[in-house]
Amino acid sequence: MKIIQSPEVFAFSLDAVLLADFTYVPVKQGNILDLCTGNGVIPLLLSRRSRAHITGVEIQERLYDMANRNVTINELNDQIDMVHGDLKDMPSKFGNGPFDLVTCNPPYFQTPKKKEQNSNEYLTIARHEIYCTLEDVVSACSKLVRPGGKVAMVHRPGRLVDLLTLFRKYKIEPKKIRFVYPKAGKEANILLIEGTRDGKPDLKMLPPLYAFDDQGNYTTELEEILYGKQK
């Protein structure tokens, strides 16, 4: 798979790869939506797991263009569409509940003071809640996913309480959570969460995922996520 990216504008991280592996997907048919899609990496990765139609939404025009080019060079135009727009406008565009799954790798940090923001506007928008808050994201997901459909997100562990509170507020019942740790003995730095629209309470805490071993190499589990299981 070929992926166009730029360290000056947007380069996907481990977070996106982990979310694409963690989330449920409708395998043979259905509709998937990825909000804050950036260069389209999550739709590209999900296309390896599902034949469902996938739509990505990105507010930054340069990233939207990059995502379109990524779809084209990987010959996935029949399966993946990109939309240039604000996620808050997507319920009006698509209507209520047309998607079986909504994924999102949203901005992690609440809006800082101007002097604290990254000098690179692209990175500031991608990382900070400039154009949308976490509540905006969860509210949009709730409207866009069908009853019984899934919403999956990757975030920082420090926002867990906010995520649980907002999921419940917008009728997305948290169903599974997984923490990702840099290595054993360190604090978790990535949180994966999935919920079901109008689901019944039943939250599963999955086993922890460790990224590196004591020698600084990828763990076997992370290698399998990144590169596939070795035969």
Catalogue the unreliable spans.
none
Mean pLDDT across every amino acid position: 90
Shape: globular
Using only CA atoms, what is the Rg?
Answer: 17 Å
Helix content: 25-40%
Main sheet record:
9 strands, mixed
Structural class: alpha/beta
Q: Strand-residue fraction?
A: 15-25%
Strand segment count: 9
Order of helices and strands: HEHEHEHEHHEHEEEEH
Give the distance, in angstroms, between the N- and C-terminal Cα atoms.
Answer: 20 Å
How many DSSP H or I helices? 8
Write up what this structure looks like.
This protein has 231 residues and is α/β, with parallel strands linked by helices. It is built from eight helices and nine strands. The protein has helices spanning 14-22, 41-46, 61-73, 90-94, 121-127, 134-144, 160-169, 220-227, and strands spanning 31-35, 53-58, 80-84, 99-104, 145-155, 172-181, 190-197, 204-205, 209-210. Strands 1, 2, 3, 4, 5, 6, 7, 8 and 9 form a nine-stranded mixed β-sheet that branches. A hairpin with an 8-residue loop joins strand 6 (172-181) and strand 7. Helix 6 (134-144) packs parallel to helix 7. The longest helix is centred in the first third of the chain and has 13 residues, at 61-73. It is globular. The model has no long low-confidence stretch (mean pLDDT 90).
